[in-house]
Design brief:
The chain is an alpha/beta fold and 208 residues long. Helix content is 22%, strand content 26%.
Length: 208
């Protein structure tokens, strides 16, 4: 068991209970594997504990290595921008660190802004963050403590184009100080996996 490592599972969250319950149940199953000394969850929005709250709890426990796994199927704005910003792996869009508000418009399921995973928008990719990043062969992202905090918040406007109007939601993160001796490793979302294909086929062929 890796006693000094904490696994942080990140979920999206929902006003309904199912999203958080799913993450909790996955966390319990992971704990039963006895691979990590500690397994915590953090929710992107709507539910608690929030990601910043989870980070504070883990740091207070004395853990020196935090492995963050987003329990998302695919990359999106949350996994490429919001979560890395909270973890200190991506520069906040507000240089003053007081949080920011910005809109993302989706048309026919595509996000209009061009995003590089874990980086800035194309227009500001050349900006240096001053953080220590390491990129392993599994495309995980590592950050050693940076000694300063980030404030971040934004709203999303979704133009669905199907007569449903516009849906907006807002979430704001509070600053989290990451000590210099704490390492954060951010992993990829689940992605395409044959095990998911098996589950899809199982669901599709039920009762046949």
């Amino acid at each position: 068991m890796k006693t000094e490592e904490t696994l942080l599972l990140v979920g999206h969250g929902s006003k309904l209970p199912y999203s958080k319950q799913l993450i909790l149940e996955i966390a319990e199953k992971v704990k039963a594997k006895n691979e990590f000394g500690n397994v915590e969850i953090g929710m992107m929005e709507f539910n608690e504990p929030t990601i910043p709250d989870a980070l504070k709890k883990i740091i207070a426990s004395g853990s020196k290595k935090i492995i963050v796994v987003p329990v998302f199927l695919a990359h999106g704005t949350h996994t490429t921008k919001d979560i890395p910003t909270m973890l200190g792996l991506r520069k906040s869009e507000d240089d003053n660190g007081h949080g920011c508000t910005h809109d993302h418009h989706e048309e026919s399921g595509m996000i209009a802004t061009s995003i590089s995973p874990f980086g800035q928008d194309e227009q500001d990719q050349g900006h240096s963050h001053g953080h220590d990043h390491s990129h392993g062969p599994d495309h995980g992202h590592s950050h050693h403590g940076h000694g300063h905090s980030h404030g971040h918040g934004h709203s999303h406007g979704h133009g669905l184009g199907h007569g449903h109007g516009q849906h907006r939601h807002r979430h704001t993160t509070e600053p989290v100080e990451i000590p210099d001796d704490v390492e954060i490793i951010y992993r990829e979302p689940i992605g395409v996996d044959d095990r998911i294909v098996d589950i899809v086929m199982e669901r599709a062929l039920m009762n046949e």
